[in-house]
From TrEMBL:
Part of the ABC transporter complex MalEFGK involved in maltose/maltodextrin import. Probably responsible for the translocation of the substrate across the membrane. Keywords: Cell membrane, Membrane, Sugar transport, Transmembrane, Transmembrane helix, Transport. Pfam families: BPD_transp_1 (PF00528), TM_PBP2_N (PF16296). It is found in: Cell membrane. Gene3D superfamilies: MalF N-terminal region-like (1.20.58.370), MetI-like (1.10.3720.10). The keyword Repressor does not apply. It comes from the Bacteria. This is Maltose/maltodextrin transport system permease protein.
Length: 522
């Protein structure tokens, strides 16, 4: 009898998946440890070479903590929380902190390095060939992975290595009939196509000598010259060409008595100067109100039109008498499946006045991208076409979660379909979809691609060639920061902080109202 009971228990009791879970946990633990070890092996040598001891200590402590956590049986919840926390810090927290910190600097073209690098660039860039200075035959070469010059004295035929550390004699080099180095022990001499590919690096390389600097003059000759501008430690200034430029530590520039500054500067903390500039500079603040109004209009209309169209289609296909719903759903999500940037370019050509499909199809002669209102209408129409499939998908999912008994009860009570939709279906949909609508608003508020790939911010009025009729704050920021021939990362980061503050404030207010709505329909 006991044997029968035992057999019955073996038949009815399902096997415990303990071994499978343990195996999966071991595999995931090995994967985390492998990734941590790979990061350590990759990051430690550069940190040691740069003598960044604080970063090295923090990295080693983090690696030791992860190793201890995943090699012990304790702290099981932390084993699952740590990877997500690391990704959150790496892809969310750190970029935000870096952007905000950049907003307080003058980081950009001409302000990328420190003061020593700026002085070196100024002196090197002002090198001019001195009268009677020697001219060398030049062969670019690699010593390991480092670019160097192999310089041939035209008189003595002596070969020397030229590097940022100075000149060094080279033994055993073989010269060609033109006097250039063909090969040398320990060096890889670059051929003409290889040297041409490194032309920028060759032009930047400067070899210090007692009398000045040796720089390349093309790819086959090098000359010794002297810096026309030199730095004087005593006055903390740059002198030369009959003028003097004093260091301005607050702006990261060398400035002369006329207020003119050298192109090369260095990165410094400018405090709230970028924020003050955004609020007070006429170029930046004169059109802010109008652009902000259009930005809000574009984001709100994009959300409303996509949601209304997507919800309408979802309701039509959700009707029990509807047939062929699978075919319609596949056809309707095609705009969502296509690459957005390609579709934006196609729509831009469709709105072309001369050969666009829309004008040809309807027999019109409308300059869609040339008028303020028509360009704004075109952008919203294109964004509606691209965005409504997403709203259709999420609304379809939300409708599946609403019990049909609720709408059927309203119908039995004699309520017309519109009343049942307005009082039952729509409120329940909004409770489920309001967070998605808010995220859609935040996305469209910064929808740079929709503007850049269709109108590029235009049309531009004659009195304001830098501010277009369809410019969003983000597209205007990109044009100001990067469209003037130089990158102003500090200014761009400041504008990004303002945009973030606007979107965050609007989202917070909307979320607070959403919670009240959820309490009503809970």
């Amino acid at each position: 009898m006991s044997l029968d009971v035992r057999e019955a228990a073996e038949v009815t009791t399902p096997p415990r998946p303990r071994r499978e879970l343990t195996t999966a946990f071991v595999v995931s633990r090995i994967a985390v440890l492998a990734v941590a070890a790979a990061i350590l092996l990759y990051a430690v040598p550069p940190l040691v070479a740069a003598e960044s001891w604080l970063s090295l200590i923090l990295l080693l402590l983090a690696g030791a903590g992860i190793g201890y956590l995943y090699l012990t049986r304790r702290f099981v919840p932390a084993k699952y929380l740590v990877p997500g926390t690391v990704f959150l810090l790496a892809f969310q927290v750190f970029p935000v902190i870096y952007t905000v910190s950049t907003a307080f600097t003058n980081f950009g073209d001409g302000h990328r390095g420190d003061k020593a690098a700026a002085i070196s660039a100024i002196e090197t860039g002002s090198v001019r060939q001195a009268p009677g200075s020697p001219e060398y035959g030049l062969s670019a070469a690699l010593k390991g992975d480092i670019l160097v010059f192999l310089l041939v004295d035209p008189k003595t035929k002596q070969v020397q290595e030229g590097s940022p550390d100075g000149l060094t004699a080279v033994q055993g080099a073989r010269l060609g009939v033109t006097g250039k180095v063909l090969e040398a022990p320990g060096y890889t001499v670059l051929k003409a196509p290889q040297a041409a590919a490194r032309a920028d690096q060759i032009a930047e390389l400067a070899v210090p000598t007692r009398g000045g600097l040796i720089k390349a003059n093309g790819l086959s000759r090098a000359v010794e010259g002297r810096a026309a501008l030199t730095y004087d430690v005593g006055c903390d200034c740059v002198k030369g060409d009959g003028d003097s430029w004093q260091a301005d530590e607050s702006q990261g520039y060398f400035v002369n008595a006329k207020g003119e500054h050298l192109a090369q500067g260095w990165q410094v903390n400018v405090g709230f100067a970028n924020f003050v500039r955004v609020l007070t500079d006429p170029t930046l603040s004169a059109h802010f109100l109008g652009m902000f109004t259009w930005n809000m209009t574009f984001a709100v209309l994009s959300v409303l039109t996509t949601f209304a169209l997507g919800m309408g289609v979802a309701l039509a296909l959700h009707h029990p008498k509807m047939r062929g719903t699978k075919f319609y759903r596949i056809a309707l999500i095609l705009p969502y499946a296509m690459p957005a940037f390609a579709m934006l370019l196609v729509w831009r050509d469709m709105f072309n006045r001369d050969f666009g499909l829309i004008n040809q199809l309807f027999g019109l002669d409308v300059d869609w991208m040339g008028g303020m209102l028509s360009a704004k209408f075109a952008v919203i129409l294109v964004n509606t076409w691209l965005g409504f499939p997403y709203m259709f998908l999420v609304t379809t999912g939300a409708l599946q979660a609403i019990p049909r008994e609720l709408t059927e009860a309203a119908s039995i009570d004699g309520a017309p379909p519109w009343y049942a939709f307005r009082k039952v279906t729509l409120p329940l949909l909004l409770v489920a979809l309001t967070p998605l609508l808010i995220s859609s608003f935040a996305f469209n508020f910064n929808n740079y691609n929709a503007i850049a790939l269709t109108t590029d911010g235009g049309p531009f009025p004659a009195e304001s060639p830098t501010v277009g009729g369809t410019d969003l704050l983000i597209s205007y920021t990109v044009r100001l920061a990067f469209g003037t021939g130089s990158a102003q990362f500090g200014l761009a980061a400041t504008m990004s902080v303002f945009i973030f503050a606007i979107v965050a404030t609007i989202s917070a207010i909307t979320f607070r109202r959403t919670r009240k709505q959820e309490d009503v329909y809970a």
